[in-house]
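Quick one: FCD domain-containing protein from Kibdelosporangium lantanae, structure tokens please.
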Amino acid sequence: MLDEYAHSPLLVSIMRLLWQALRGGPRVTRTHAESVEEHAVIIEALRQADADAAAKATYNHIMGTTHLN
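--- reply ---
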């Protein structure tokens, strides 16, 4: 996961708490290839130090495939 690559124990803990808060866990509706492509967009935005693009791509990635029960 991207948060683990950041080498931030705090970020990893927050992400784990977020996923645990979703009753039944996250519901992923995209393919693995689509997920990898979305991660690449997020990583490229981070490399470019484009916080707005990174935030938008991250939001779209999470909200596009996670359904709350």
